[in-house]
Amino acid sequence: MTARPGPGDARDGLPGPADARDGPATRLRAFAGTSVALALLVAVTATLAAAFPRAVDRYTDAGLRRAVAQALPDATTVQVQAALPRYPSVEEAEDVLRPGPLAAARAEVLAAAQAPLTPDRARSAYGVRTAETVPVTDPWLPRPTGTLPEVVLAAQQDLASHTRVTQGRLPRTTGGTATSRTTRIEAAVTADTARTLRIRVGSVIHVPTSARGPLAVRITGIVVPRDPRGAYWSVAPVLRTPALHQVPGSSPPDRYWVGGLLIAPDAGPALLGVAGLTRYWNVSPDAAALRGHDLDRLASAVAALESGPGGRRLRATVDENVDIQTRLDEVLAGQTRLRSGIDPLVLLAAVGTGALAVIVLAMAAGVAADRRRGEAALLRARGASPTGLALRLLAETAAVAVPAGALGLTAALLLLPGARTAPAVAAALVVTLFACLALPARVMAAHRTVRTDTGREDLVTARPSRRRTVAELAVLVIAAGTVVALRRQGSGGAGPVAAAPVLTGVVAALLLVRLQPLPLRALGRATARARGAVVPLSVAHAARASGFAVLPLLALLTALTTAAFGGSVLAGVTAARDRAALLAVGADGRVESTTGALPGTLPDRVRRLPGVRAVTEAGVAYEAKARLTGEPVPLAGVDPGAYARLAEHTGLGPFDAARLGRNDASGGDAGRTLPALASPHTAEVYGTGPWDVLLPDGSTVTVRVVDVVEHTPAVVGDDFLVVDRSGLPREAARATTLLLTGDTLDGRALRAAAGGPGGDPGGSGDGAGGDPGGAGDPTAGDPAAGDPTAGDPTAGTAAAADDAVGVRLRGEERGRHVDSPLQSGAERLYTVAVAAGAGYAAVALLLTVLRTAPERTALLARLRTMGMTRSQGRRLLILTALPQACLAAVGGTLTGWAAVHLLAPGVDLTAVALTSPPTTGEAVLRVDPLSLAVPALTVLLLAVGVPAVHAWLAGRRGSVRELRLGDA
What we know:
Distance between the termini: 30 Å
Radius of gyration: 39 Å
Oligomer: single chain
Number of strands: 22
Largest sheet: 12 strands, mixed
Structural class: alpha+beta
Helix content: 40-55%
């Protein structure tokens, strides 16, 4: 009885040819290790592929919601208003002001908002209010400068659900339905309004009307908003917080208070006769429903509601004179601009990592095809068709890849919730299909015809076919086109431009594969007569490697190019933020007075703080002016020696201290000419010859520009002068700024030493408050909008005192440039892409080792029978791996360097790196040496270390299996 050959009958330590009658389960068990490795590779790749669109969705959603949340509610709310037209009768005018018609109109307004603009009904306010402020004459109301206070009256619906009563009760309509003849109504005020305007429960405010006597408004309750920053209260913030306005053109400033009175929701008709009455419906977008991928559709929906079909519908159903206004489109446009700068960079990372994943999956299919070469040849010899063989392999591969792909997809869905599912499913499906089809396609290509001997394809002797030459030339042309397009169009060009870094690595790999035989031939000739057998054998064995070496080299070069490019992007982002922070602060830390000179003891206190290595004093006069034109020219008085060391340390305008010394001025004589450093703009406008500068104290100094520097630590901006402060008058020479050097500055300790909370030295300490032009604006003076005087006429003085000494740290300034989840999300995604690329490079090396592992094992076994020791065998394998490892490391380093230099003109990192475009130029891509050296050294170590470990393991096993009959 003839035994059927089993999976264990094999040559060279490989599973033997499987019988045609073997089922998929038997065949998978025969290749269990390969199946597990393939499943793991497909699962990880599917996870990464499915996670990418979900990660993009998550950070774009978060970025859009953050942008809407950071904008003021009056900017993000669609405000629909309709002034009260003339009606034939008073009764008709009263009817449109009642809650029923207002609610019906609100339903029309909400229906006109089309998806994806989803209104937040709870935060969307509507009702009736006075569009203009109304002066009131009650003598007990506060009058800061004697001007009558003014009020805004609003019958805002759903008042009870948005307030919490602290005193009294909510207003209601008493004595029947409110009409235009009603003379007394009730109202509530917020706690802030009551405290500022000295209003108590029971107070009566008399509001003048045009058709009858004053309308008496009795305060029945004091309330606290449940969500004071929400759109319900913040679209018209004067209803929540009183504002201190200033009469336009008054000198000295004439100020008056404006407060809001919340009348009963059904008391709107009682306001007939009050000036500027209007109906309003505010549509606040639901932040939870905002999606980044709907940004374009959302902008279209806003435009349609404001001036498109939605607006026409409201003018037909609500009021023909309805007015629709919003600044939500500006917020969306800003988000679109930010995404237009970030998305191309993310696409570059995705294409690079995706291409590397495809190459590695193709390599895995190549390894599996090599392992099954004998089996496929036997099946073809027994009559199996290429299609039948491919379908058989497809079924086997699908049995492994499909569950692995499903597992990877599930992992991505669980790890990144709250994003779209369809793109993730599509990405995982593409990975799974490619993994299923790669092996059958590879086997079909290798076994189109029945062969018994494929012949040798030595690396040195192999000659590329014409088809391969044509394909390589086509890739070269495409790569050159994408590089040129990227340099001309920038990273925001078409999708194929994103493949430029990958194609650069592909072209380099093809070129190196062509050039690889040349050094091997030279090494073969050089070592032919060398003593010992290890070196000649290693070179000969490297030269006899299979001609199928393009995929491993392509994977390594693509990985190294992707790592170099991605690392350079991350390094460029960090460098841009560091540079922007340095330009904003001028040093590692800055202590600056905005109201005068610093205390004389402050420099010594700061020097003694931990982490402070050096303190450089400067007296900066921002109010200095050029006498010739009267234009401001900030002038900094410094100690030349210390300031020159600081400029050298920071790289901001280094100069020779001797040139700034007062070699032509006597001490303390401000009438002599002072040598000065100037900005390019200042030197261009005023020249380098002597010219006069007016100081804030009224004195004059004459300066002569001796050097021009782009930036200087003491002054931020395009205009500045730097002189030796010993030549300035005593008042102008006093220190107003301390520039600190130190890597571990403690902001809390610095602020405590400076005696204030710190802040922006350029911030205003003006306590004037209010909007000079806001006399008629009932929404002006919102503290949330940055008005320091709202609610307190002395708030400006306190703000000025707090900002008298400002402390700014370079590290804190750097952190302010990561303002949007779009930036941080894209940066994290780039980091993951670089790490994934490194992982795929390691997998590519392992696949290369696995492909040649049986051959190396048999070689070591044969050489052991000839007397070669284990240490010689290890050296042989290491030296055999060195040529391709060195080629990949050196080639990858050069390719990465060339790719960064070639693509840098077309890559702008400003959107990712900085919150706003810098005034000193774009954030550009620069070569990062670590991103070039570390991956190359890692590849070299892995390429040499893995064969060494394999040789050590093979040496510990016996050689019986590898040396059966016919093998020795």
